[in-house]
C-alpha cells in the first residue's frame, strides 16, 4: 500500500495515525507488541513522518555509493531495521515534499 501512494506531510501523518492508533491498536488486543507484526509498515511510517531535512539527508546518504554498512548507520539511528537501503529510498521517494524539493533544487542549479 505504501508503494502505491504518494504522501504529503499531512497524508503521511494521517497514515501514521491510522496505523498506530487503529491497526496496531486492533492487533494489540491479541498481542503485547502489535508493531512487531507489521515491522515494515512501522519502519515506513518512521521514514514518511521524519522531518523533511532528516529525510533529505538520509536520501542523499542512501543514494551515495557508500558501503552497505555505512548506509545502514543512519537507518539504525532512526530505528529503521527491517527495510534495506533500496526499499528506504523507494519509501522516501513517495514523499511529495521531497520530490518537490528535488525539482526545485534542480531548477536552481540550471
From TrEMBL:
Biological-process GO terms, alphabetical: cleavage furrow ingression; endoplasmic reticulum to Golgi vesicle-mediated transport; Golgi organization; male meiosis cytokinesis; regulation of ER to Golgi vesicle-mediated transport; retrograde vesicle-mediated transport, Golgi to endoplasmic reticulum
PROSITE patterns recorded: RINT1_TIP20
Taxonomic superkingdom: Eukaryota
GO cellular component terms listed in the entry, alphabetical order: Dsl1/NZR complex
InterPro entries assigned to the protein according to its UniProt record, in alphabetical order: RINT1_Tip20
Region forming the signal peptide: none
Name under which the protein is recorded: GL21322
Organism from which the protein derives: Drosophila persimilis (Fruit fly)
Amino acid at each position: 500500500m505504501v508503494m502505491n501512494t504518494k504522501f504529503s506531510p499531512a497524508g503521511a501523518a494521517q497514515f501514521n495515525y491510522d496505523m498506530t492508533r487503529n491497526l496496531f491498536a486492533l492487533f494489540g488486543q491479541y498481542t503485547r507488541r502489535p508493531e512487531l507484526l507489521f515491522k515494515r509498515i512501522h519502519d515506513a511510517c518512521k521514514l514518511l513522518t521524519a522531518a523533511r531535512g532528516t529525510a533529505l539527508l538520509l536520501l542523499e546518504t542512501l543514494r551515495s555509493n557508500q558501503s552497505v554498512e555505512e548506509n545502514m548507520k543512519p537507518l539504525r539511528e532512526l530505528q529503521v531495521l527491517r527495510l534495506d537501503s533500496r526499499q528506504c529510498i523507494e519509501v522516501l521517494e513517495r514523499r511529495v515534499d521531497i520530490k518537490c524539493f528535488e525539482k526545485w533544487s534542480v531548477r536552481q542549479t540550471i
